[in-house]
Design goal:
Pfam families: RsbRD_N. It comes from Pseudacidovorax intermedius. This protein has a single domain, classed as Orthogonal Bundle (Globin-like). The chain is about 75% helix and about 0% strand. It contains eight helices and no strands. The protein has helices spanning about 5-10, 10-25, 35-40, 40-55, 60-65, 75-90, 95-115, 120-180. Helix 4 (about 40-55) packs across helix 8. The radius of gyration is 25 Å and the shape is elongated.
Length: about 190
């Protein structure tokens, strides 16, 4: 059985392991329902399995392994963005999101070893799986990072605007006090 077939066949088990890991190890996940934790994982696993089966030239594989985006799977990108948005809204940190992907990778590899991986194709299958999961992780992490930067920039903009008037009043008042000759030095 190929790794992509294994992911499809045992998708629900992998999604359950994904949710179990999150609820046990990630603080923000402990208040979420099982359905909330499972939300986008199944579609993401399916997109990864589909991507692994696509024919890929050596150049495309090399480019993808170097993080170049031209060959990215639209399905992986879409589901990874949905997953990142959901996790950020649920209070997950970037590190928690990364830990989820690490756990997903480990679950797939353990299951594959348990079910008797085909040694003739192991190396290529592992490379393709790692490329796909890394692509999803990269898309999710970049999305979370962009949203965090946007939130920080928005906060700083609001803070700067809200502080401008009080700081202006303090500056004006201090200038008046410095120029008033009738004030005692103490």
């Amino acid at each position: 059985m190929s790794l992509s077939d294994l992911i499809r066949t045992y998708r629900e088990r992998l999604v359950d392991e994904w949710a179990s890991y999150a609820s046990a190890q990630i603080k923000a996940a402990q208040v979420l329902s099982r359905d909330d934790l499972r939300d986008s994982a199944g579609k993401l696993f399916s997109a990864i399995a589909d991507d692994m089966e696509k024919i890929q030239s050596e150049k495309a594989q090399r480019d993808k392994s170097h993080g170049l985006r031209p060959g990215n799977s639209e399905a992986i990108t879409r589901h990874a963005l949905v997953h990142a948005d959901a996790r950020l809204a649920q209070g997950f940190s970037l590190l928690a999101l990364i830990a989820e992907y690490r756990a997903a990778r480990a679950s797939v590899m353990r299951l594959w070893a348990e079910k008797g991986a085909n040694e003739a194709t192991d190396a290529e299958e592992i490379v393709r799986f790692n490329e796909a999961i890394d692509e999803a992780l990269n898309v999710s992490a970049n999305s979370v990072e962009d949203q965090l930067h946007h939130g920080r920039d928005l906060f700083l903009g609001v803070l700067g605007h809200d502080m401008r008037s009080p700081l202006g009043a303090i500056m004006s008042g201090s200038q008046v006090l410095l120029k008033d000759d009738h004030l005692s030095p103490v």
